[in-house]
Amino acid sequence: MRPIRLSEPEPEPPGGATPEIFAAGGGAAVVRRAVVIGNGCAGAESQCFGLLRALGLADRFTLYRAIRPTGGINKWLHFLPFSFRKTLDQFHRRVFSDTRFAALVKGNKFVQYPVRNCQSFGLSSVLEADTQKMVTMVCDTFEKEGPALVVACGRDTISYASSIRCLAPDSVFVIQIQHPRFHLDRFDLVVTPRHDYYAFTAKGQQEVPRLLRRWITPQEPPGPNVVLTAGALHQADSAALRSAAADWHAELTPLPKPLVVVNIGGPTRNCKYDVDLAKQLVNSLHNVLKTCGSVRISFSRRTPQKVSDLILKEFSTHPKIYIWDGEGPNPHLGHLAWADAFIITADSISMLSEACSTGKPVYVIGAEHCRWKFSDFHNRLHERRAVRPFTGLEDMSDSWSYPPLNDAADVAARVREALAQRGWRLG
Q1: How far apart are CA 69 and CA 425, in angstroms?
Q2: Which PANTHER family does this one have (predicted)?
Q3: Fewer beta carbons under 10 A from the terminal one: N or C of the chain?
Q4: What residues contact residue 427 under an 8 Å CB cut-off, 6+ apart?
Q5: Whether the Cβ atoms of residue 161 and residue 176 lie closer than 8 Å to each other
Q6: Is pTM, for the whole model, over 0.85?
Q7: Do the Cβ atoms of 20 and 136 come closer than 8 Å?
Q8: What is the DSSP letter of 6?
């Protein structure tokens, strides 16, 4: 009888240890790092960081930026696709680096075309987005570091995120925040507000002529890899607010209660208004001041000068009111932590999303100026009883609550489920 030979056991890894990326996971790859692709816009990048905080990766990421070319002819090319603009920008850089050619066009408006260092942002840890470099980094470090979570937000980041997934599908899990308009199958997950699908509602279809529907984004209902949120993701989670409460304790605790925080944004394409809304806000604030202990007002980067000037002229010397002048530490997180109520202009989805995550009273001014999906966003907040219109007839000492928005945590749960389906887990 032929003797039975038992197969030799597989050799153990050096040192007898399990490879690091499979340690304690039953063979599951462990995701311990992230790649963030931003567009330089604080609102967009904050959504990426907010998701990473919810996933426990807030201190383990590399930030790349898709840097939009500026200067020269670029101010007239904003409508072109980002990748084409980058190619054109590089062409102009090469052309105008030739001093002989530059001499020929001296006096022409293009001679002042600026050539800047795209990596110079005052942050040494921010790298310029380059698809091949990002793919090489992820793949070369895969054996030691394991797979990477790629999180991108904004139109300019779409091509980078989809290309990375195409070139390194086994090494990355790609999440695109904000609707990429088409080819959703090029991403592992797409995270987008529910109001982006307003065109599919009965009311939305009534508002859009049939001939124009094919041009409305998105083109089809959300698929299984689309995660819908109530508002925008952000970093103002409970841990951040606890830290802010401690940081701003000395300044904000002594203020008379109720403390009302007023956040003023600026008009947008879907929420147009002018200085008349500022005048309405001034009148309404005067009416409720008797029920306020103290008021703190902040402007955003988008606030028109004529709006801020009107507010400053009216309230800069009022004893109950403090207006942040933009100097020193930004009190925004401190306001979220310590405010008893908020008054917010309707144009800012991010400010409303942050305030509604606190469960505190939120009053909105200017919602009647919003249209299309912005209007749908406000209607959904009203349905959740998270906001009320600011009329100037309120008693600001009244306290009311609602289930707080918790979009980042909800999305993080979906990410963990999707990773588990692939056989990966966060570590």
Answers
A1: 38
A2: MITOCHONDRIAL FISSION PROTEIN ELM1, OS02G0535700 PROTEIN
A3: N
A4: 25, 30, 31, 32, 146
A5: yes
A6: no
A7: no
A8: P
